[in-house]
Automatic annotation (TrEMBL):
Belongs to the NDUFAF7 family. It comes from the Eukaryota. Its EC number is 2.1.1.320. GO terms for biological process: methylation; mitochondrial respiratory chain complex I assembly. This is Protein arginine methyltransferase NDUFAF7. It comes from Acrasis kona. Arginine methyltransferase involved in the assembly or stability of mitochondrial NADH:ubiquinone oxidoreductase complex (complex I).
Length: 459
């Protein structure tokens, strides 16, 4: 049996990253394929399919006396997933992550409020909330990009997963202060969470109530399909790609085998789910064979494929190459991603990925190689990428040191100076190496990647 073991590491109120030397682990205890057709057929027989689906749910769970002592309390998503697995067999890790994060009734980002997710009271802290200096540096990158675009036509600034809206607020604030807010700028926020949309609306102002940022209209979208179909687009994605589901695979004697999620009935662990290896080649393993060929082909190698991320990158690449624009991604993940990186984050601690499904954040390291390869493929060579470059290098090249010094000079209170220095330290040192920045631009926008602000050290 393949099982995720609990690994806790306390990182109280520090950002959503971990040290390379002490990563959270999903430990494989033993590997024995355990999905049998009989099991699946057996589970199907246990479920009484009837027209009254509400009674079906009740029947399956409230009368389930097979839950051993010591299991954590079942929440709505646990019940839903158990039922789904019982009916149709183990699910992909990607399905599990998708359900846990964005299930319309129980998903983490659908149900969590801003204070439950972000900040001290929540599960993690992100750079825009550490200091305004982060947004100010991103605006320096942005103004150079805007200056390269045709300013006689509208430009669409799209943020993917804007969270509380802090980064966009800080960007618009700077553009407005230096009177650079172009008349032709439209802001689009791609956000699944209705609760967070409300927070963003409050922070930024809706198209009707906007006053603070002049005439910049703000629009919300579920995905990229409803974005305007003409004009240049600049995409920003801060800690967005790490929140997208991945498929997991392990190389076995039989070839690449998909890691699936099954119900755990044992009394050994409090979680209701554990991982198993598909006995045969699952559909994703077959369809993704080509993608898996870039990993080491030794038995025991583990790989994650971020198919949802690739879908976004495909659309972004097509939009930028056809209409011009750019994309800036800042997220965590080392240059060379390897192994399984999916982790659970709850109240500033790493927790088992199967703990309290839907109440715990799940995130993965971004696979920069996968993204850069995809940009090359989907744009037919029309785009170039700069990075990944460490957040430390990126912010330093954009001038965070002099910005911090200038703020310190103006600050009269010792307490505020100490706070400012702590924020600087956090962005540049603590988060400086684990977070990376990657920029995607058309090849005709810059002669070499070294010309792109924040990426001047590129080889
Ligand atoms: C980790 S938070 C990052 C928030 C913000 N960018 C920051 O750095 O503070 C991820 C954000 O992406 C949104 N999100 C997650 N999955 C999404 C999806 N599939 N489509 C659109 N938004 C999504 C979440 O609701 C949330 O706003």
């Amino acid at each position: 049996m393949l099982r995720a073991t609990r690994h806790l590491r306390t990182i109280r109120c520090i950002p959503r990253y971990y040290s390379k030397n002490d990563p959270p682990v999903i430990e494989v205890v033993d590997v024995t394929p355990r999905i049998k057709v009989d099991d699946i057929v057996g589970s199907l027989k246990e479920i009484n399919f009837s027209v009254d689906k509400s009674r079906l749910v009740q029947k399956t769970y409230e009368k389930d006396e097979n839950i051993p002592e010591g299991k954590e309390e079942e929440n709505g998503l646990t019940k839903h997933l158990k039922q789904r697995i019982k009916a149709a067999g183990p699910i992909s890790m990607s399905t599990f992550m998708n359900e846990a994060l964005v299930n319309s009734e129980h998903g983490y980002y659908r149900t969590g409020t801003d204070t439950q997710i972000f900040g001290r009271s929540g599960d993690f802290v992100t750079s825009p909330d550490v200091s305004k200096m982060f947004g100010e540096m991103i605006t320096i990158w942005l103004t150079t990009i805007l200056s390269k675009l045709d300013q006689k036509k509208p430009i669409h600034l799209v943020e993917l997963g804007p969270g509380k809206g802090t980064l966009m607020k800080d960007i618009l604030d700077v553009l407005h202060r230096v009177e650079l807010t172009p008349d032709f700028l439209n802001v689009h926020l791609v956000e699944v969470s209705t609760g967070l949309r409300e927070v963003q609306n409050e922070v930024l102002g809706s198209p009707v109530t906007k006053t603070e940022f002049g005439r910049v209209p703000i629009y919300w979208h579920d995905d990229l399909s409803t974005l305007p179909t003409d004009d240049s687009v600049v995409f920003l994605a801060h800690e967005f790609f790490d929140a997208l589901p991945v498929f997991q695979f392990e190389k076995t004697e039989r070839g690449w085998s998909e890691v699936l999620v099954d119900v755990d009935q044992s009394a050994e662990v409090p979680q209701h789910f554990h991982q198993v290896l598909a006995p045969g080649q699952s559909v994703p393993a077959k369809l993704l064979e080509n993608q898996l060929s870039r990993f080491k082909q030794e038995v025991g190698t583990r790989a994650e494929l971020a198919v949802y991320s690739l879908a976004f990158i495909q659309q972004i690449s097509q939009i930028i190459s056809e209409r011009s624009g750019a994309c800036l991604i800042v997220d965590y993940g080392t240059h060379e991603k390897s192994g399984f990186t999916c982790r659970g984050i709850y109240k500033h601690e790493f927790v088992n990925i199967f703990e309290k499904p839907g109440q715990v954040d799940l995130s993965v390291d971004v696979d920069w190689k996968e993204i850069t390869n995809a940009v090359e493929d989907y744009s037919n060579g029309a785009l170039m990428t700069a990075g990944p470059q460490s957040q430390k290098g990126f912010l330093t090249l954009l001038g965070i040191d002099s910005r911090c010094s200038s703020l310190l000079r103006r600050e009269t209170s010792d307490e505020k100076c100490a706070k400012l220095l702590m924020s600087y330290e956090r962005l540049v040192e603590q988060m400086g190496e684990s977070y990376q920045a990657l920029c995607i631009v058309p090849k005709n926008m810059f002669v070499v990647t070294k010309e792109i602000p924040g990426f001047e050290l590129e080889q």
